[in-house]
Design a protein that fits this description.
alpha/beta, 7-stranded parallel β-sheet, binds NADP nicotinamide-adenine-dinucleotide phosphate
């Protein structure tokens, strides 16, 4: 059943770059209204102009706000409700990582990761689900391949994504009787602003990952929307990512503990 055909308004968080921008571009052709959320207003306005020129009939709303702030999240939903805008497709995409040892991490960054990756995703879902139960809807939560195993030097990030995948799976079961699909998107490496945002400084090492393992963001989003259309619970976009997920989830934790000890990086 093609779910997207029946949506009127999508809300995409983290739409100023990377996967969120691509979600907005691909979803725009299939909705009447789209709401773009992130902090960098100029990038959101540029994206809004691109969407308007490609799809003149689509109404585009730009909300520059900080998802770490509860008040910003509440104001967003209140403002939309005041304008009679009720998102029925929520794409919880905004997120950030922090690559390096936990002991030397900056607390402000850890806190932002917890607030954006976990709290904002959960809060926006909580604010919008009641309306979806009344009128219909769907939720896409952008998790990660990192959600399937603990990752030293990416410990908090991987744990936040384990939360996202677990939460999505459980919520999906709760919302089944209301016919609201919930999809967890679990990409492997994708070329976006994520790598730079995850580095601790210009001199700190980049996250190790093979070039051949990268999946284009266009493919990640296209596979994700196709997965939503067929009401899948989870998608690992790209064949290599899917194969990696299959192998990683089959490895016993005792073996993983041993193997992960040989990690490529030791210092934060
Ligand atoms: N790229 C990868 O390899 C990869 C792999 C697996 C999963 N993911 C997940 O994919 C999602 C999208 O990331 P990406 O790869 O597209 O990275 P990205 O290009 O860095 O995009 C991250 C987005 O999140 C937004 N964001 C971050 N903090 C925010 C805050 N406090 N308030 C509002 N918006 C905030 C950013 O907007 P502003 O800076 O303008 O606020 C930006 O639009 C994330 O959840 C990430 O964990 C990425």
């Amino acid at each position: 059943m093609p779910y997207l055909k029946s949506f009127t308004c999508a809300l995409v968080t983290g739409a100023s770059s990377g996967l969120g921008e691509e979600f907005a571009l691909q979803i725009a052709s299939r909705v009447d209204k789209i709401v773009l959320v992130a902090r960098r207003e100029s990038l959101l306005e540029q994206l809004a102009d691109r969407i308007r020129s490609r799809h003149p009939r689509v109404a585009v709303g730009v909300f520059a706000l900080d998802l770490t702030k509860r008040a910003d999240r509440e104001r967003l939903v209140e403002t939309l409700a005041g304008r009679g805008v009720t998102p029925d497709l929520l794409v919880n995409n905004a997120g950030l990582g922090d690559y390096g040892e936990f002991a030397t991490a900056d607390w402000e960054k850890i806190q932002s990761m917890l607030q954006v990756n976990i709290e904002a995703l959960t809060h926006l879902t909580h604010l919008l689900v009641p309306g979806m139960i009344r009128r219909g809807g769907a939720i896409i939560n952008v998790s990660s391949l990192a959600s399937v195993i603990p990752i030293p030097d990416f410990a908090v990030y991987a744990a936040t994504k384990a939360y996202v995948t677990s939460f999505s799976e459980a919520l999906r079961i709760e919302l089944r009787e209301h016919h609201i699909p919930v999809l967890a998107v679990c990409p492997g490496p994708v070329k976006t602003g994520f790598g730079t945002a995850s580095r601790r400084s210009g001199h700190s090492p980049e996250m190790p990952s093979r070039q051949s393992f990268y999946v284009p963001k266009q493919q990640v989003v296209a596979e994700s929307l196709a997965a939503l259309d067929r009401n899948a619970a989870r998608i690992y976009p790209g064949l290599k990512t899917a194969a990696a997920a299959f192998v990683l989830t089959a490895i016993p934790i005792v073996v993983l503990r041993f193997a992960l000890g040989f990690r490529p990086r030791r210092n934060g």
